[in-house]
Design brief:
The longest helix is centred in the middle third of the chain and has 28 residues. About 60% of the residues lie in helices and about 0% in strands. The protein is elongated, with a radius of gyration of 19 Å. It has a domain of about 55 residues. Helix 2 packs antiparallel against helix 3. The chain has 3 helices and no strands. It starts with 10 loop residues before the first helix and ends in a 17-residue tail after the last helix. By secondary structure, the chain is mostly helical.
Length: about 90
Amino acid sequence: MNSRHHPDLGATLEQSRSGLRDSHRRSLMRLLFFSTGSALVIFAILQILNGYVWVGAGELVASVVLYFGVWRLRATPYLQQSQQFPGHR
């Protein structure tokens, strides 16, 4: 896959700044969101057991937002949008 004319390369891959296909970027983001959300749940339980209920509640809210992101990343139409800055090519 070193050739730019390989039949497996799509327009999405050629225009990508990261070199990953859209589905691979989605999978990677979902994995990161899920693992971070899971770690926050564990730390929230530890915070609540130590008496820091508000900190634990904040971490639980953040983990719910991350889990929502895991679900939403599957259907979002644009994961990476191209932004043009003035004077930047």
